[in-house]
C-alpha cells in the first residue's frame, strides 16, 4: 500500500547549514542549491529570515533567495512578522513558519511561548494566503523535546489543527532531536492523515539515534508521501542540544528506489551536490550512499 511516488523536500541549504560554526561562503551555498536542483530536487528550503544575531550562518538570506533555481519551489523560513516582512521584499512566494509543540523549546528557539507565536503567526498566515503564497508550517518537537521530554500526540495534533484552520498548505511534522521510534512515527502520522486529510503532510526526521530511515518507513506505511531530508545528512537546530543531522537525502532516495518508489532524483548528481559543501563543513560526511560512491 505504499505510494508510487514520493516528493523530497530538500532542507540541506537551510537545516543542513544553519548549525555550521564557520560561515559558508554565499557563492558555495548558491552552487549547492543549483546542483541540488540539477539532481532533480523540486522543492527546497533555501534559507531562513531569522535574526543574524541568533543564527549568523543565515545572514545572507536576502542574497540566497535571489538565486532560487527555475522550476523549484524555493521555500524560506520566517519565525515572526519581521521575518515575513523581510520575505515580502523578495521575489519569493513560499514561506515556512516554525513553532514548537513544546513551550520550553519554542522559547529557546524563538523567544516566545508557543501561544504567543501562534497569536503572531495566525493573522500573518492569512495575509500570506491572500497574497497567494505557498505556506508551510514546521512543527518542531512533535514527538520529544530536549527540555520537556515526551510530547503528547494530542498536543501535536491540536497544534497541527490550528495551522490547518489558519490556512497553511503543508505541515512538516518534525522529530527535532531524533528520538521517535518507528511505532510512534506510525501512530502520529496515521492520526494526522486521518484527522487532516486535505493538507499536504511531510515528515521531518533527524537521525540522532539512527532511527530516521526506520521512522521514514513507518511514516510511509501510515500514508505519508512527502519527506524532508538533507543532502549529506547535514543538519541540526542550534537551539536543540544534541540534534544532529537530518536523514540523508541520498539514503532516503536509495531506499525508496529499492522499494520501487519514484522520486525523480539522480543519486550521482546528488553526490556531486554534496561535494560542493563537503570541503567547507565541520563534519565528515558519513552517509551510506555517499561513502560507497567514493569507494568506486
Ligand atoms: P528576539 O531577540 O526576541 O527578537 O529574537 P526581538 O523581536 O526582541 O527583536 C530584537 C532584534 O532582532 C530587533 O532588531 C529586531 O528587528 C530583530 P534591533 O532593533 O535590535 O536592531 N529581528 C529580526 N531580524 C531579522 N530577522 C528577523 C527578526 N526578528 C527580529 N526575523 C527571533 C526573536 C525569532 C528573531 C530569534 O529568536 C530568531 O531569529 N530565532 C530563529 C531561530 C532559528 O533559526 N532556529 C532554527 C530554525 S527552526 C529548526 O531548525 C527546526 C526545524 O528544522 C524543524 C525541526 O527539526 O524541529 C524547522
Ligand atoms: Mg530540523
UniProtKB/TrEMBL annotation:
One of its GO terms (molecular function) is hydroxymethylglutaryl-CoA lyase activity. Residues 6-271 form the Pyruvate carboxyltransferase domain. It holds the Pfam family HMGL-like. It comes from the Bacteria. InterPro entries: Aldolase_TIM, HMGL, PYR_CT. Keywords: Lyase, Metal-binding. It is an enzyme of class 4 (lyase). Its EC number is 4.1.3.4. Belongs to the HMG-CoA lyase family. This is Hydroxymethylglutaryl-CoA lyase.
